[in-house]
Amino acid sequence: MNARAVPAEPAALLALAVDVAREAADLVASGRGSAAESVDVKSSPVDVVTAVDKASERLIVTRLLAARPDDGVLGEEGAARTGTSGVRWVVDPIDGTVNFLYDVPAYAVSIAAEVDGEVVAGAVLNVATGELFTASAGGGAFLTTPARPETRRLTGSRPVSLEQTLVATGFGYRAEQRRAQGAVVARLLPRVRDIRRVGSAALDLCAAAAGRVDAYYELELNPWDHAAGALVAAEAGLVVTGLPGRRFAEPMAIAAAPTIAGDFVDLVAELHG
After folding, report:
1. Among 63, 166, 207, 221, which one has the highest count of C-beta atoms within 10 angstroms of its own C-beta?
2. Considering Cα of 173, then 176, then 178, then 180, what sign does the dihedral take?
3. How far apart, in whole angstroms, are the C-alpha atoms of residue 212 and residue 267?
4. How many Å apart are CA 184 and CA 190, to the nearest integer?
5. What is the DSSP letter of 236?
6. Which string of b and e fits 238-272 if b means at least 16 CB within 10 Å?
7. 172 within 8 A of 178, measured Cβ to Cβ
8. Over the stretch 221-237, which tens digit does the pLDDT of each residue have?
C-alpha cells in the first residue's frame, strides 16, 4: 500500500491501527528486559516514562504518517501534529508503564483514530499476553487471543444489582489525589461485589467490554488513556458516560453494564459529591 492509499473509513483505519500496534508491541516486548535502565518521571515521582515508551511512540507516529501523511497525531509522550485530513490518531505507546517496568502482565499499546473529533476505530493490544481488543464505530467490539484463532465478539456482562457488580478503577499520581481516591474506594467497597485495580485504563475498559469486570470508573484520564478502550466498551454495549450532566472523562470516566449503569453512575456521583 502506498503512502496515500489508506482510506478514512473506520474499517481501513482500524486495520492500520492493528498493524501498527502489532509492530509497536514487538518493540515494547523486546525492550522489557532493559526497561529499568532508562526511567524518567513526569507529573510525580511515581509517574514514570521509559525509553521504550518514547521509542514506541516514535515508531507508531512514523508508521501512521507514512500511511496517511495528512493526518493529525496526539501522543502521550509529546507527539502533537495538526493534520488536514480530518483524521487524528490518539496514541498511548505503553498504557500501564509501571506494570511494564515491574513485568506485571498488563501493559498495552493503544491506538485510536478520530474523524472530525469522534473516535471511529480503536485497537488495544496487551503486549504481555498478546490479547488484541478492537472496535470500529457501528461495527462492534472484538477480542483476538493467541491461543484461539477465532475472533470473539464482546458483549460485556449483565449483573443484576450493584451488590453483584465487580468494579475496576485506577488512581492518579499525586499523593493528595490518591488519598481522596482511596477514601472513595473505602466507601464504595461495602456496596459492590469487589474492586479490581489493574493499572491500565485502556485494559480496564476492555476488561469491562469482555465481561471480566462489570463496571469501571476513574477520574482525570487523558485522551490517550481512554480513546481506544472507550470505543471498545461502547461497541460492546456498555454505557459509557460521565457523571450526571457531564461528558465521559470530563472529569469522570464511567463504563458500566447496562443492567446497573444508572445505579452505578448515581453511586459514583454520590461518593464524589
Report:
1. 207
2. negative
3. 21
4. 11
5. T
6. bbbbbbeeeebbeebbbbbbebbbeebbebbbeee
7. yes
8. 999 999 999 999 999 99
The span from the CA of 169 to the CA of 34, in Å, is: 29
- The verdict on whether omega for the bond into residue 10 sits within 30 degrees of 0, i.e. cis, is no
Q: How far is CA 161 from the centre of its chain?
A: 26
Q: Tell me the three state secondary structure of residue 150.
A: strand
Q: In the structure grid, which three cell numbers stand for residue 20, read together?
A: 501498527
Q: Is 58 exposed, middle or buried (0-12, 13-18, 19+ CB in 10 A)?
A: middle
pTM above 0.90, yes or no: yes
pLDDT per residue as tens digits for the range 30-86: 988 876 666 666 556 555 678 899 999 999 999 999 999 999 999 998 899 999 999
User: Cα separation of 92 and 77, whole Å?
Assistant: 8
Contact between residue 239 and residue 160 where contact means Cβ atoms under 8 Å apart: no
Q: How far is CA 207 from CA 38, 146, 213, in A?
A: 30, 17, 6
